[in-house]
Design a protein that fits this description.
Helix content is 42%, strand content 19%. The strands form two sheets. The chain has a five-stranded mixed β-sheet with strand order 3-2-1-4-5, with helices on both faces. Strands 8-7-6-9-10 form a five-stranded mixed β-sheet, with helices on both faces. The protein contains ten helices and ten strands. The chain has helices at residues 33-36, 44-66, 85-102, 111-117, 162-173, 179-187, 212-227, 234-260, 275-288, 304-316, and strands spanning 2-7, 12-19, 23-31, 75-81, 106-110, 130-135, 140-147, 150-156, 264-268, 291-293. Helix 6 (179-187) packs across helix 8. By secondary structure, it is α/β, with parallel strands linked by helices.
Length: 341
């Protein structure tokens, strides 16, 4: 079964053809990062306009690269939530029109579920149930993936997600957008012990995440140094920041795996490309005898292959939509209401 996936939740226009939820036949991405760089972040209206310009040629290229025609596609999967509402609407509207014109099933995919599905494309042995840790720009989430279509959230972002913390701190340090990759590069040559950052403490659910305090501390530190005409070693500060986020993610993940009885852990999301997060969680899993799955760097960020992969499993479960499908800037995962407290 071949699924055409379409992704437009932020600043990448992407399309992909995936076979049986596991084999990538094509994966095309038109990134807008260089255009948004001058503004220090994504400009929603500009992103939407570029999606309108890019989506048709990107989908055509995905079909050509896969050497398939639209008639040979079995279903069209599209990201409908969450994300920038204008950007999402471009993808959803295009997918609806294409599905109606070609008389193909329309398959809605939650962006966070799509990130989790990225691991299916490179780890054929990975099957639910397992513990998922999804770390991206807008979400940091621990979830029990009980089957391909059901996620039981254990802990999630209360305020700033890990990726948002990286990006905002990177901007304060003077790094260009997107900041996460620059933090990672700077951290590789910095000394994480040069700064003592505050430990993240929260009341309530021990598996929830909060990085707003860490972001505020670093931004204030940099502002204070600027006012006092002091010099801050941004390599060292980046290394300290990266270690704090990586350790927090790893500690909560390992604790959840022990409490809920999981031996398989799957990392995904844009921040799963961060070398500190990957190596810290990898070492923690090895120490505790857990099996860790991670996508390659190319599948960590937003892409349509992950949407097509999840779309395949949604279709098998009977999760389809009609022309009334709408985009949503925020949307709960299936099973999210079962979050621990």
């Amino acid at each position: 079964m071949k699924i055409l996936g379409i992704e437009s939740s932020c600043d990448e226009t992407a399309a992909s053809v995936v076979e049986n939820g596991r084999v990538i036949l094509s994966n095309v991405i038109a990134s807008q990062a260089s255009e948004h760089m001058k503004y220090g972040g994504v400009v929603p209206e500009l992103a939407s306009r570029r999606h309108c310009e890019n989506i048709l040629p990107v989908v055509q290229k995905a079909l050509e690269d896969a050497n398939v025609t639209l008639e040979e596609i079995d279903g069209i999967a599209v990201t409908y939530a969450p994300g920038l509402i204008g950007a999402l609407l471009v993808g959803v509207s295009f997918a609806k029109g294409l599905a109606m014109m070609a008389d193909k099933p329309l398959i809605p995919v939650h962006h966070t579920e799509g990130h989790a599905a990225a691991n299916y494309l490179v780890h054929p042995q990975l099957e639910p149930p397992y513990l998922g840790i999804i770390v991206s720009g807008g979400h940091t989430r621990l979830a029990e993936v009980t089957d391909y279509n059901t996620f039981r959230t254990i802990g999630k972002t209360r305020d700033d997600a890990a990726g948002e913390c990286f990006d905002k701190c990177a901007r304060a340090m003077g790094f260009p957008y997107p900041g996460g990759v620059h933090i990672d590069k700077a951290a590789s040559i910095g000394n994480p012990d040069a700064f003592k950052l505050p430990k993240i403490k929260m009341e309530g659910n021990p598996y929830d995440f909060s990085f707003s305090g860490l972001k505020t501390y670093i931004v204030n530190l940099l502002h204070h140094a600027e006012q006092c005409h002091d010099t801050v070693n941004t390599n060292d500060l980046a290394a300290a920041l990266q270690r704090e986020i990586a350790v927090t993610v790893a500690e909560k993940t390992i604790a959840a795996a022990k409490e809920f009885g999981y031996q398989k852990i799957a990392l995904s999301g844009g921040v799963s490309a961060n070398s500190g997060v990957r190596s810290t969680l990898e070492a923690a899993c090895a120490k505790n005898g857990f099996q860790l799955y991670m996508p390659p760097i190319a599948l960590c960020g937003d892409n349509a292959a992950m949407i097509a992969a999840q779309g395949y499993y949604n279709y098998l479960a009977g999760i389809t939509a009609d022309e009334s499908l709408n985009a949503a800037a925020s949307k709960e995962l299936r099973g999210e209401s079962a979050q621990c407290s």
